[in-house]
What does this fold into?
Amino acid sequence: MKDFYQKTVALDPEQSTGKLKVSKLCELINSHPYKDEIYKTFKIEEIKDEIICIDFIDLIFNKVKYYNENYKRYSIFSQIKDIDFFEEEKLIDGDIQRDYIFNFEEYVDIDEVKNNLKTIAIYDSKNTFLDGYEMTKYANKLFKIRESGLARINIQHFKEKAKTNSKVNKHKSYRLVEYENTVYLRGITSINRYFEYGVDFSFVVSMLVLHQNMKKEVGLEYVIKSAVLNESKLDLIVSEKLLKDAGAFGKVSTAIKISTNDLGQGSLSFSNILNVGKVEKGFFIYRRKYSDIENNIERISHTSKPETVFPIFNNLEGVLNTSQAFIDELNEIKAIKTPDELRVKILAKIKSPKSSLKDISKLSDIFKRKIDNEISSFAKLLNMCEKAEELEIEYDLKDKLRYIISDIILYGG
It folds into this structure.
């Protein structure tokens, strides 16, 4: 459904001041369950009048605010015995649209028992539900061959069984989003072991972390290089403006990838990466976790309690600041690998029969041209990677491409 696709934010410098007051930023979490913890951790009352200067921060703020105001997110609780699940067909503009429906015959909204709420399954909620019966593959096959009635008979069997069997009658939290007067089921989680670290939370906290770091490191400046989001998922790349020399790779700058997936077993993560090339364009190299000593990735599970999560935000040194060791590693790569060897490996990964990138001809074309192995030719490989980064393709595919390029350049694939 297009209303729930992750959308790329256009980073237009003419539309951005690159500034946002701390108090304005915190409007996004006015009704968030962890507002008090955020205020305490970052001492918001002391800094509320400070201005955060990060290029394009105001544009991302406006987009997150839009999702907060137009997509109402909340959770209900229900038991299997009270849930009817089925496929529904309807005709829209001459085309048949098939939706998977969860009808909650009885549920609890906060502390009030309610009845008959019809929701449409989105994201992976259908499969999460079917996984509980270990019948996902079977049921989806029935849906595919237009035998949804048979799938419903199987699911009804378990629903009836749940009325007398407590092991079958599982009690879960159902995460909903209401958009344009329609309610959608976006995820299914445990009742008391799932904590809300969603898009608004992640954006606010990450901008406050970067603001703290800029105050600590005088002269440090940031620019948001990439932003893709919807009401449940956020992916940001924020780069330092200061360029450092990386030998054959030219100029590089430290960057931070910030991601959150507020669905199912998703997580909030902060990763130290590199922006290679230019401040305006360039491409990104993703690192594997370097070592136990140098922690360049911080992942926070949605099952982690707030009291264990908030101290992490004041201890992200390994993520925020690239060590010289990583830049030295890049300098050594050219000496041990030829650019054409790397190009061939990237092309092979892209064109693999199992690759989700194999049908993007513009991408394959970029890496088709053979590179001679003279010293100066390493720049040609970097130019190919930069052109690949500029392609307008679905975000998940672009992220896979970044991982492929990074893994081959850094670790030989």
Q: What stands out?
A: The chain has a mean pLDDT of 89. Residues 199-216 form the longest helix (18 residues). The longest strand covers residues 95-109. The chain is about 35% helix and 30% strand.
